[in-house]
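Good morning,

Both structures are done.
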Amino acid sequence: MEDVKIVLASALCLLNFLAAEASASELSGPAKFCGYSPIIDLQPGEIVTPIQGGIHAGSFRWDGSFGSIVVRGLGWASRPEGRLEIEPTEEKPGRFAERNQDGKYVIAIWNGRQSAAYFESSTRFTDRQLAAIDRVRLFQEGEEPSDCDLQTKFVWSIDE
C-alpha cells in the first residue's frame, strides 16, 4: 500500500508540474512575480515561463524587450563563486561579475545570506539585460514575499 501512495504522490506532482507548464503563458507583466527566490516587477510585455521547480530551487525563462534570460533561483544557497562587483545591501542583492561557464555566460546575484539567483545567456549580457537583472530582488526560505500577483510555489501533497 505504501508503494501505491508513493506512485500516486509522484504522479500528482508530475500533473501539477505539467499544469504549470500549460498555463505558463499567463505569467506576463505588468505584475509582481515571486518565484523560487527572485522577485521581479515585470514590465508590460515581459513574460516568465517556468522550466523546473523543486523544494529549494527552480528555474524559469524571462523574456522582454531586453531579450531572453534563463534564471535559476535558490532559496537556500551559499555565496556564489566569482568576483563580487556590487556589495549586497538590505534593499538590493549584490551582483557578481559575468563569467563563462560551460559555454554560457552567467551572472549571479546574492542577498548576503542564503538566497541567490543565476542568470544565463548564450551571449554576453547587454546593458539592457544588466538593467533588468538590477531590478531583481531576492527572498529566501522562511520568508514570504508580499503583494505577489504571480507566484511559483512547490507543493507536496499526500492524501491519506
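Second structure follows.
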Amino acid sequence: MNKKKLVSAILYVLIVVSLFSGCQAAPDTAVVVGKNDGRFEAALNSEATASGAEIEAFSYSDKFTGTDGKIEFYIDVSDIEYSGNPMPVIRMTPEPITVEKAKQISEVLFGDAKLYEDSGELSKSELEDQILYYRQISSYDYIAHELEGLNGERSKDEIEAAIQSHMEARLAILADLEELYEDAPDDAERQECR
C-alpha cells in the first residue's frame, strides 16, 4: 500500500509542476484587436484631400435592356474629375418608403392596374393551375429532358440520382398542393392595396 501512495504522490506532484510550468507572465503590450491600427477610423474622420496628384477627367456611358426587353437603362456619367486619392468613406441611410412613394413606384411599374395584398391563401382554381403544372414537370421524361445537358459532365448513375432527387422533391410539392386543395376556398378574398 505504501508503494501505491508514494507513486500516487509523485504523480500528483509531477502533474502540478507541469501545469504551473506552462504559464507565462502577463503580456506587456495590449492585445491586438484589429490589424488596421486605426486607419479605418482615421479615414472616417478625415476629409478627402488632394495630394498634389494630377487630376484626371473621365466619362462613362452605356445603354442596356432589361431581361424582359421592355425597359431600357441609360448610364451617362460625364466629366468626372478624379485625383487618384482614395475615395472618402460616406455614411448613408436608406430612404424610407412611405405610402406615397409606394404608390408612385407602383404607378411607374404597373400603370393603372389594381394591386392586391398577398393573403397567402390560394383559391381552388389557383391551386388547380399549380397542381397541373407540377404534374407535368414531375414526370421522369420531363426531368430527364431538363437534365439532358449533364450527359457529358456526369456519369449515368449520377444523372439517374439527380433525376430521382428532382422527382422526389417535385412530387412532395405536388402532394402538399393536393392536400391544400381539399380545404381551399372556392374564391380567395383579395384586398386591394392601400
